[in-house]
Design brief:
332 residues, mainly alpha, two-stranded antiparallel ribbon, 1% strand, globular, antiport, UDP-galactose/UDP-glucose transporter 1
């Protein structure tokens, strides 16, 4: 659902997107950490098939987006055809799967640390692949947000969490996270390109196209290959209903979150989206710290200032750009 109109209306839409992304993904992060570290049932078995979460989320988000299109979208609106998402669907399948698998080898805060610089590969891929150019102040915002989250996560990382990991292996875990970032950079840049080539494409169209291909690729990987783990994951859920319930809630959070993410991309571009999602990771750590009763140190409050300083500066830049556009319209 792409919204045009006054600056005030777009500001309200941006606030709605931020609230939706933060609430959905903060809770999803809690569930993700639970599924990767908890031992289920009297036999205290771990859920080893974390890549299955990617398939489950793709299916739920596919159904969700189809329902939203039938309820709210205008049929035949001239959006991007579903086949245009095939390449982004590949990277969007492989990237998140690597990020989830990394939780077997490194802690959730360490994963946040590695993935907090997501904005940088998005900008690099957009520049190298599609020739998109950003201004110097936009790079300042990006480095302030990514740097603040990274330093905060580094300060918060504790060796006590190592005992919770299934297979501690920091080099492998960080490698998976950085590969995740590389694939995400291509995915987001491709989504921007599709949105620019097909301006009438709505958020739910993108969501449907991405998750359609994601479901196809994940089904092949999970059930079509000899080493597929789909049947083992389903059997685990049958034996441990608590895990199945956590997976369902995880997927629903992803559906709601993806809805707001694609709405953000359609209306504000991938850089604004990565700013919101990166800051969400920071807020997630803050909420975790408050809930566990751990006060922030002076250095950590410095990270808070970096992140929200960068975000505030980006909002100011967008406001200033909007004012220039409004002035040009008045003159014409």
């Amino acid at each position: 659902m792409e919204v045009h109109g006054s600056g005030f209306r777009r500001t309200l839409l941006l606030a709605l997107c931020i609230s939706g992304i933060w609430s959905a993904y903060i809770y999803q992060g809690v569930l993700q950490e639970t599924l990767s570290t908890k031992r289920f049932g009297p036999d205290e078995k771990r859920f080893e098939h974390l890549a299955f979460l990617n398939l489950a989320q793709s299916v739920v988000c596919l159904v969700w987006s189809y329902i939203m299109i039938k309820l709210w979208s205008n049929a035949g609106n001239g959006g991007a055809p579903w086949r245009t998402y095939w390449s982004a669907g590949i990277t969007n399948t492989i990237g998140p799967a690597m990020g989830i698998e990394a939780l077997k080898y490194i802690s959730y805060p360490a994963q946040v640390l590695a993935k907090s610089s997501k904005m940088i590969p998005v900008m690099l891929m957009a520049t190298l692949v599609y020739g998109i150019r950003y201004t110097f102040p936009e790079y300042i915002c990006t480095f302030l947000v990514a740097g603040g989250v990274s330093i905060f996560a580094l300060l918060k990382t504790s060796s006590k969490t190592i005992s919770k990991l299934a297979h501690p292996n920091a080099p492998l875990g960080y490698t998976l996270c950085f590969l995740n970032l590389a694939f995400d950079g291509f995915t987001n840049a491709t989504q921007d390109s599709i949105a620019s080539r097909y301006p009438k494409t709505e958020a739910w169209d993108i969501m449907l196209g991405m998750n359609l291909w994601g479901t196809i690729y994940n089904m092949i990987y999970m059930f079509g290959l000899p080493q597929g783990i789909g049947f083992e994951a389903i059997q685990f859920c049958k034996l441990h209903p608590e895990a199945a319930w956590d997976i369902l809630k995880y997927c629903l959070c992803g559906a709601v979150g993806q809805n707001f993410i694609f709405m953000t991309i359609s209306n504000f571009g991938s850089l604004a989206n990565t700013t919101i999602t990166t800051t969400r990771k920071f807020v997630s750590i803050v909420v975790s710290s408050v809930m566990s009763g751990n006060p922030l140190s002076l250095k950590q409050w410095g990270c808070v200032s970096m992140v929200f300083g960068g975000l505030s500066y980006q909002i100011y830049l967008k406001w200033r750009k909007l004012q220039r556009v409004e002035k040009k319209k008045q003159k014409s």
